[in-house]
Amino acid sequence: MLGPVILAASRSDKMRKLVSAAPVTKPVVNRFIPGETVEQVVPIIEETVGKGLEVTLDVVGEDITTPEQAAHARDAYLELIERLKELGHGPKAEMSVKLSMFGQALEGGHELALANVRPVVEAAAAIGTTVTLDAEDHTTLDSMFAIHEELRKDFPQTGCVIQAYLFRTEADARRLADAGSRVRIVKGAYKEPAEVAYQDKGEIDKAYVRILKTLMEGEGYPMIGSHDPRLIAIGQELARRAGRKLDEYEFQMLYGIRSEEHIRLAAEGHRMRVYTAYGTDWYGYFMRRLAEKPANLLFFVRSMITKN
């Protein structure tokens, strides 16, 4: 029950100011967001890759209200790509983008988001890496999938995200599980109405397994986004049954959560990618991480109590 409350708080300006002003907030946020600039996150990239892991980078910030802000978000990713080029890590460091940052919710937002994300995808391809389009709330998904389909015409390695708690996702997975596709499956972190999404955790988990089975049996490249030990084990078994080699799928987890599990999976020969966000507009991202995992909220509250 805490998740919906926290998600509502993520959209509250009052809560944003309260949390941002708390003296212990920044040290706790650093558990999930290791920096605000490209240069601050470079050591994290180097450390992660040095451990035999891979990384996907997200420049956080979704409250875009003008085309100029959307262009600024595009430029932030282009700056990141230029720095990744200098590091020379290739596909070990890819990017995740939310189309809301590229102006998707503005007037003419579909065309604007496509125009802004295309040069990012093109620049990523030029340095040997790629981009995954993150899923947001259900009202944005038709646009996201259409942009994904358009980008794949020239950049077939462009990935996308699907969310297990949505009723539509099983059909989306069947459509997306084709040769060359890259699909990350997650449970879902947005507050969605009962008309479009499962509300019960058990039902969400069952849907996740059904969808992952579809992806594993398809011809694409599944990316298992989960920290749930049971789903990770099921993912390994489904991959084995589908006859997949260890480099034909991957696991993805958030920076700062279950770090020892990152290392364990990589040591077993799995591809393990760490989703790493950075940027100044961290509040919405931080609150969704709390909503996804109540233990994260307890960690935050305990930190505030012990530091005050």
Description:
An eight-stranded parallel beta barrel has the order 1-2-3-4-5-6-7-8, surrounded by seven helices. Helix 8 packs parallel to helix 9. Strand 6, helix 10 and strand 7 form a beta-alpha-beta unit. The chain contains 13 helices and eight strands. It is α/β, with parallel strands linked by helices. The C terminus is likely disordered. It is globular.
Write the layout of secondary structure elements.
Blueprint: H1 2-10, H2 13-21, H3 25-29, H4 38-50, E1 54-59, H5 67-87, E2 93-97, H6 109-126, E3 131-133, H7 141-154, E4 159-163, H8 169-176, E5 182-186, H9 201-217, E6 221-225, H10 229-241, E7 250-254, H11 259-267, E8 271-278, H12 283-292, H13 294-307
Descriptors for this entry?
alpha/beta
* Unreliable parts: 303-308
Tell me, rounded to a whole number, the average pLDDT.
Answer: 88
Strands of the largest sheet, in order across it? Answer: 1-2-3-4-5-6-7-8
**Shape type:** globular
**DSSP summary: helix tally:** 13
Beta-strand fraction estimate: 5-15%
How many β-strand runs? 8
Radius of gyration: 18 Å
Q: For this entry, what is the oligomeric state of its chains?
A: single chain
SSE arrangement, N to C: HHHHEHEHEHEHEHEHEHEHH
Can you summarize the main beta sheet?
A: 8 strands, parallel, barrel
- Which structural category fits the helices and strands? alpha/beta
The termini sit apart by 27 Å
